[in-house]
Amino acid sequence: MYTEPFRPLEQCEKVNPEHLAILVKAEWQLSYVTPLYQFRHTQLKSYSRQLSAFIAAEKQQGLAVEVEGSQSSFRVSFSVVQGMAETDDDAETVLIQPMFAKQDEPQRSVWSGWLTCINGNPDYLHSLPKGFTCLPLFGSSGAEVLTSLVKSWFQQTFDCCFGCLEINQTSLQWLAALWTNCHTESSLKHLKMIWTIPVVPPLQVTYTVDPQDAWELWMSVRMDQNIDIEEVTRFMQGLKSHFYRHFRLDLSAGNLQQVSTALGSAKFSGKIKVLLLCHRYRHCWLADEEINLLTTH
Questions:
Q1: Which of 63, 137, 210, 211 is deepest in the core (most CB within 10 A)?
Q2: Are residues 71 and 120 in the same domain?
Q3: How far is CA 267 from CA 149, 255, 282, in A?
Q4: Which Pfam family, any one, appears in the UniProt record (predicted)?
Q5: Which domain holds residue 254?
Q6: Is residue 274 part of a domain?
């Protein structure tokens, strides 16, 4: 059973507003990360210098961001995002930003990335050998070449590995239900789902549901204050049944690829966009749960 992790507004306000402005509204590509060896939150200034030097060396070889021009100066900023951790076992979130500036111009961020652990599996966290830090979820937004460089530096420096993190159908269905559950708090405006049907040629179905209709269906399957998978399943089955009555097409035969509302969007490919700050925690909870499955099986 999943208990709704609603955070009061004052809890969300513990996060630096500048950090929140970065975390919300951008689309993030998610990856999972194995534990970092000898990573220290107290050494972020040193890591900033090391990663800056690493990118400079790669740029001299023509492998970095040439669009910024050869006269650009840059530095890399590492910072801790306080207030994201849910438990005492969670390591604090780390934000990474390469800052570029042309002559006589202020520095600006051309890429952002973060490493986080929210509601990590306590048994797994306690089983890690001494010297390892678990920040299993990595989000990146910006040029792919910088994403590759940052990952490469982390792999060389902390003996870790990155891997693709897909948002599976179950997690997408959870998000559809959780967002619908927030309708009275923050209007959905729409509940949009994209399905792919395995026929020849492939068929893509876009299913947009009126927010009030989605809310009423969701309320009809609710049993108590907790949200469990049975309620989510009944909610999705109700949506599929409604679609079948109108179009005689069974969405159960297809795969859910994307869910979006006015609160955010999530894609099977691992891309996520959060438009309302307090709902970011639900995204990370789901992603960390998937990482927990990877690390415990």
A1: 137
A2: yes
A3: 24, 12, 15
A4: CENP-L
A5: 169-268
A6: no
